[in-house]
Amino acid sequence: TGSGREVGTWITEHPRIEKVSFTGGTDTGKKVMASASSSSLKEVTMELGGKSPLIVFDDADLDRAADIAMMANFYSSGQVCTNGTRVFVPNALKAEFEAKILERVKRIRAGNPEDENINFGPLVSFEHMESVLGYIAKGKEQGARLF
Q: Per the database record, which ranges form the Aldehyde dehydrogenase domain (predicted)?
């Protein structure tokens, strides 16, 4: 056990660990890469910043691509690092694809996730909600006021 830095350094420098996979911020990713490469040139896989593109090709089923784009962009309320933040579409298909996305966006209902008519809640999970409520409680204990 130990801090992220201590454990991370141990993992990246241990000679019997052959691969490191890291998900997190760019600054920490640079440190992981430097440590892993200086110790034993171990294989490193990283996800740093959540720019997960969806690429739509000329022969794509645009209805299916639009459904996938919606899921990739909205399923997590935009709160996970693998959220599909970019969609690349050939210019010749752009207008048709945008129309299909707009149809689907108009059907989104955000609100209380306990309501069966709601597609998405304001937070990605119950655990995340508990975390946010904890931050609010701590802030109030320290004198913050809610408006």
A: 1-146
